[in-house]
Amino acid sequence: LELVLKQGKADRIVLEMSHVSYTLPLKRKPYEFPEFLYQSTAETPFQYLLSSDLLLQSFLISTRNQIPLDELYVWWTQVKGAFGKARLLSQIASQCEKPVEPRGKEPPTQAYLHRLEQLISTHPNVTFITVFTPLSAIALGEEPTHDEVRDPIADRLEFRSQTAAIARRNSNMILYDYAVREEIVTDLDRYKDTGHFDMATTELMAREIVTQTAPLADLSNVNSGLLKLRVEFDPARFSCAQLSKQSPHPTAQSEVGLVGI
Predict the structure, then answer these.
(1) pLDDT 10s digits, 38-85
(2) How far apart are CA 188 and CA 69, in angstroms?
(3) What single string gives the DSSP state of each residue in the chain?
(4) How confident is the model over 129-167, as pLDDT tens digits?
(5) N or C: which end of the chain has fewer CB within 10 A?
(6) Cα–Cα–Cα angle for 143, 199, 32, rounded to 5 degrees
């Protein structure tokens, strides 16, 4: 991204702002995050370009005949039942069956957001379109596995506050907020788990961003809509305790071919 900007080859950049993407497991393994990509060294681009994953994908693409870009890496059209409320609740229920263990994550680091703001302020003639993507409203409740280290809701609210502060300080940054778009986040049929939505939702956001009709974030009180939605939706209805009282949902074992998607 920095190279593209230095070359003056972009006038608009679209970035997803997800607190999950800005946090890491406290006990992460080396392969869980490509930290070398964030080091400003001469070796960085070569490490990326010569990585086994990239070389393999490049080879596979080169052996195919003119595949449209929007068909690359598409799996969701090939898997029956990948999205929908039943799938979502099944995924949550399968998490409830796992042993309770702390899954602490580091808070959204100031370093990442500071670097982002440096990028934005250094290129005032480039418009940075940033987007809070729509997690399922169920994600506003407690996680199925108990977290003794971090409060995921508090981390999310803090990340939103920090991002809004950057937008207030930089006039070339636009912040859209789909996380409070009620008809999307409360429509559980759009999701395969609490964080991954379907292509129809992606296409809807893309159209609205292009036509500048996407919902702007309330920069002065960015978390008010999310907290209001949490009260009105009542995600506690989908807690492990409540799901165990409802009619049984398919377990992960019965979802052959779906687990791990």
Answers:
(1) 666 777 777 767 777 667 777 776 666 666 666 666 666 666 678 899
(2) 28
(3) -HHHHHTT--SEEEEE--GGGG--BTT--GGGS-GGGGS-STTHHHHHHT-HHHHHHHHHHHTSS---GGGTT--TTSSTT-SSHHHHHHHHHHHHTSPP----BPPPPHHHHHHHHHHHHH-TTSEEEEEE----GGGGS--SS--SS--HHHHHHHHHHHHHHHHHH-TTEEEEE-TT-HHHHT-GGGBSSSS-B-HHHHHHHHHHHHTT-SPBP-TTSTTHHHHHHHHHH-GGGGSHHHHHHSPPPPPGGG-TTTTT-
(4) 999 999 999 888 865 444 444 566 887 898 899 999 999
(5) N
(6) 50
User: How sure is the predictor about 221, in pLDDT bands with cuts at 50, 70 and 90?
Assistant: very high
- CB of 187 within 8 A of CB of 233? no
Residue whose structure tokens are 């490049």: 58
How far apart are alpha carbons 5 and 11 in whole angstroms? Answer: 8
Q: Are 132 and 185 in contact (CB under 8 A)?
A: no
The pLDDT of residue 186 is 93
Question: Contact at 8 Å (CB) between 118 and 163?
Answer: no
CA separation for the pair 99, 81 (Å, rounded): 26
CA dist., res. 110 & res. 77, Å (int): 38
Q: Are 171 and 128 in contact (CB under 8 A)?
A: no
Task: Report whether 144 contacts 96 (CB < 8 A).
Answer: yes
